[in-house]
Automatic annotation (TrEMBL):
Subcellular location: Cell membrane
SUPFAM superfamilies: Cna protein B-type domain (SSF49478), MetI-like (SSF161098)
UniProt protein name: Sugar ABC transporter permease
Assigned keywords, A-Z: Cell membrane, Membrane, Transmembrane, Transmembrane helix, Transport
Source species of the chain: Streptomyces sodiiphilus
Primary location recorded for the protein, binned into one broad class: membrane
Amino acid sequence: MASGGPAVIRARPWAVALFLLPAMVLLGALVVYPIGYSVQRSLFDAAGTGFVGMDNYRELFTNPGIRQALQNNLIWIAVAPAVATALGLIFAVLTERIRWGTAFKLVVFMPMAISMLAAGIIFRLVYEADPDRGIANAVLTSVHDAFSEGAPWPDARPRPDGELAPGGDGSFVAQAPAEAGSPVLLPLVGVPPQKAEGAEQAKPAPEVAGEVTGTVWLDFAPGGGGEPDVIDPGEKALAGIEVEALRDGRVVATATTAEDGTFALPAEADGAQLRLAATNFAASFNGVDWLGPTLVTPAIIGSYVWMWAGFAMVLIAAGLAGVPRELMEAARVDGATEWQVFRRVTVPMLAPVLAVVMVTLMINVLKIFDLVLIIPPGSTQPDANVLALQLYLSSFGTGANQGVGSAIAVFLLLLVVPVIVLNVRRLRREAQR
């Protein structure tokens, strides 16, 4: 049978050509012709009439926007496939040891059923800066607030012409020195009324001989009215404010305002300058700027890993099912720990599968487009740009230049070809074993 095959091909080459013709036509129309035309078009200007030679290729390395896209592509190639493959390996190994492994695999693989466009919309919402809308910052702020009380009144500030003046480090300092037995009034404004709804009515501090007393309150009466620097009915106390007494630049005494806004400092504060510490007014933690210039690319890579870790897990789990269990048991009998079994038996046996997954994901990230188009806001999209998106923008965006776009397409092809060649050689070596 095997010897008759070549003889049939030599006897009836027209039959072979007839069967191959539809596939060759499709291959030529959908692959060969577009590649050839892209190479030709990359040698001409934007209008397609003037021959410019290699100028479009030089543009790839001199244009700042395209260089940023190339740099981001290198980050994608180095990080995304490795992280997705590593997570897939961990999931595949661990799911063999848990009772609900199949259900876990289903949950991890489920994002593969979502289109890139839908995933981009989902993660655009996940990375919203407002903790009330973005789940990532909602989780971070919840964890942060569980371990840190935060500033009591971050919005408070003194009146421009009041007793308090900015101290230069976020604190507010009283202009006149304090005197024992003479209550001090330290009014603040700027606190939204809804944040002070539960506060008590502010009260004047009592006169206490030998002590510096005072009141810190919100000098704003609901509905208007009232006098500046006077505790009017309806004005709320600011509890929890730390008051410091400064003498020669040193803190000699501290106190914290009570629920009614009053505080009392010992005799050491007599003649000292009062300061409301900067910690009282530090801006509250509102999460991380995920889509800012610094983190936008790692954030998008995170969304990609969320989608493709399940793909890696399924392929690796299939390869893991073919690993001889006798080798693992023999290693355990010889005294190897689970980590040693994983590192010296499981991973080497899975090396061919891991290589397939890595190569597949590397080719995939070179074509990443949808996530980078959808997730970043317009202000930071140039910082997250990649070559596939830049190809689209150069060819069809503002000031379109399809010569440069074709050059980017050819460059992407040249990046993919070595990976494909290595993969084909590896497959041939395995087939010869």
